[in-house]
Amino acid sequence: MLRQKVFLMLLCFFCGSSSVSAQEPNTPMPWAYAINTPGVEIDFAFNVPRTVPDSTVEFVFTNPRNLYQPPDWHPQDHPVMPSIVANGREPVVFACGYCHLPNGQGRPENASLAGLPKEYILQQMADWRAGLRRSSEPLHGPASNMQAIGANATPEEAEAAAEYFSSITSKPWIRVVETDTVPETVVAGWMYVDAGSDVIETIGNRILEMPEDLERTELRDDRSGFIAYVPIGSVNSGEMLVQSGACATCHGVNMKGLGPIPPLAGRSPSYIARQLYDMQVGNRRGLWSPLMLSAVENLSIEDMVDIAAYLSSLEP
Predict the structure, then answer these.
(1) Residue 34 to residues 25, 204, 207, 292: CA-CA distances in angstroms?
(2) Which of these, 8, 48, 73, 209, has the minimum number of CB atoms within 10 Å of its CB?
(3) What's the CA gap between 297 and 280, in Å, rounded?
């Protein structure tokens, strides 16, 4: 339990204070829009050498929350990062590689960009810039940050980032586990983490996406992925929903995308669920969003859980 507590403190310092208002959630699936749990203590031993497995580099974090200098533990895993990805542009445009990681695999609170079509990434940046994308949960900090970045990034910066991330092949990143019960959790760094107690909860109609290794995740090791706990039977139910719908027409038979349409296989179930809901309630209104309206308008929350669980379980 002590080990978990130390890691939880580390997590909060890297991703921002968890001290936010205990306001009621604005969506019927707050698990998808994880909001930091108030009162989590922040403590992080920085100014000491840090390493991660299978890396030859070492970092000393003098500022553990430097949004303009993400650690690149495995530079051999990706092309040379353009400046906007590696360093961003102060004061508003954070380094893309901080949130989405240098290899673009991303985290539950944001999007995986690796392997997305360049045209798709550019269109989403244009939608952010035009105010056509916003979160259904105003307290979800990562989406608010992306709104600010989208509004301030130049077309040239968006082009460089889109070229970079679209050139990287997505890899297996999320291990989907069907279960009836999950450990008690808190939210820190905008994602669920084990509370370190012995309490077991029923999963209910939700998905809990958590780090496989919390310490490596918060050191921003882009080889350390996630586990997604989903309700028993949700993967099969999601497969039936996807196969009986028109998803394959745009996203391909294997959900790996067609042309500028994004691949969905193997991506974050939290992110997928957020996008389905945002489109359903009209908070995602970009150029291509109307193509999804008929697909999402009659989905229940349970349907979204099932679809997200199934898509995440696929090989990217």
Answers:
(1) 9, 16, 11, 24
(2) 48
(3) 5
d(CA 37, CA 239) in angstroms, rounded, equals 33
pLDDT of residue 237 exceeding 60, the answer is yes
Domains and CATH numbers, the chain: 2-166 (1.10.760.10), 174-313 (1.10.760.10)
- Report whether 113 contacts 106 (CB < 8 A): yes
Separation of alpha carbons 308 and 263, rounded Å: 13
Burial 126-137 (b: 16+ CB within 10 A, else e): bbbbeebbbbbb
Instruction: Write down the residue that tokens 């269109």 correspond to.
Output: 123
Contact of 247 with 103, CB cutoff 8 Å: no
Res 3: pLDDT: 41
Beta strands 59-60 and 49-50, pairing class: antiparallel
Answer whether 16's CB lies under 8 Å from 65's CB: yes
User: What tokens does 122 get?
Assistant: 């550019």
Nearest-angstrom CA–CA distance, 77 and 13: 26
Contact 104, 113 (CB under 8 A): yes
CB 44 within 8 A of CB 32: no
Token code pair at residue 128: 């952010």
Mean pLDDT across 245-272: 95
Mapping DSSP to helix (H, G, I), strand (E, B) and coil, where does residue 161 land? Answer: helix
Q: Which two tokens stand for residue 222?
A: 């882009």
Sign of CA dihedral 239, 241, 242, 243: positive
Q: Which residues are CB-contacts of 32 (< 8 A; sequence separation ≥ 6)?
A: 207, 270, 273, 274, 277
For residue range 94-145, what is the model confidence (pLDDT) as tens digits? 999 999 999 999 999 999 999 999 999 999 999 999 999 999 999 999 999 9
DSSP state of 195: -
Residue 25 scores a pLDDT above 90: no
